[in-house]
Amino acid sequence: MMKKKLVFPISREETDQLKIRDQVLISGRIFCGRDAVLPKIAAMIEDGTIKESHLNLEGGLIFHTAVSQAGVGPTSSNKYEIESTMETLSKAGIRMHLGKGALKAETVAKLEEQHAVYAVIPPVTALLNSRTKAKKLTAFPELGMEAFYELEVEDYPAVIAIAGGESIYD
Predict the structure, then answer these.
(1) Residue-wise pLDDT tens digits, 46-98
(2) Which residues neighbour 150 within 8 Å (Cβ) at sequence distance 6 or greater?
(3) What confidence score (pLDDT) does residue 123 get?
(4) Do 64 and 74 contact (CB within 8 A), yes or no?
(5) How far apart are CA 37 and CA 95, in angstroms?
(6) CB 147 within 8 A of CB 37
(7) Is domain 4-165 given the CATH code 3.20.130.10 in the classification?
(8) What is the model's pTM?
């Protein structure tokens, strides 16, 4: 099976073409956040303060991970603090959420409404570290490795797990 190359940020049209089980290679500018920071970013979106920041989420990807000296690896996306932010983040322009684990049926529906998808990535920190070209702390530095980071990546391998209202977990 041929892997689709996605360079972020991507358009809504590119997201709409993705199907479950598609194998993708992710490159470009992506964001990293997990349970400590994603609710803060979602609150900024909801209260409008995101406009005052320098965060442009349009066409973006959020990788559910912390950024440490050891590298990056996925955390469980179905943690309440992560999964509950996906609709808000998607409304703000996030086109792909990247992590691991099954999501609720209502989250699948909300992602479809927002033309967003969810992909899973293997927990292979050494591989991902070698494909991470740059990292920048962008918000909430007080959270340490769980702060909001922006990475420049090349060819992160992933599989589309949720797209078009369908889930590989059903």
Answers:
(1) 999 999 988 999 999 999 999 988 889 999 999 999 999 999 999 999 999 99
(2) 29, 30, 31, 32, 135, 136, 138
(3) 82
(4) yes
(5) 18
(6) yes
(7) yes
(8) 0.94
